[in-house]
Amino acid sequence: MIRSDNNGLQALRARAYTLAETGQFANAHAVEQALVAEGWPNIHRALDGDYARKAISERCLSAQAH
After folding, report:
1. Phi/psi class of residue 42: alpha, beta or left (left: φ > 0; alpha: ψ in -120 to 50)?
2. What is the chain's percent helix, strand, coil content, to nearest 5?
3. Is 49 left (phi over 0), alpha (psi -120 to 50) or beta?
4. How far apart, in whole angstroms, are the C-alpha atoms of residue 6 and residue 22?
5. Cβ partners under 8 Å of residue 56, min gap 6
């Protein structure tokens, strides 16, 4: 059970990074809202912590610069 949960959280983070890299989102909060709209479960758990949010925000900024 823990392994499948881990895989789900990793898939969610990967989707968040993909969305951030599109350049359509200004920050991690906007990406989080898009994930909610897509119906992803456990969003808060997957994005809990500074590392994930910082990585998403950096990808958003980098994508907007291009």
Report:
1. left
2. 75, 0, 25
3. left
4. 25
5. 16, 17, 20, 27, 28, 31, 47
Q: What angle do CA 19, 24, 28 make, to 5 degrees?
A: 60
pLDDT digits (tens, 9 = 90+) for 7-57: 999 999 999 999 999 999 999 999 999 999 999 988 988 888 889 999 999
Nearest to 58 by CA among 18, 16, 20: 20
Paired tokens of 27:
């920050």
pTM here is: 0.88
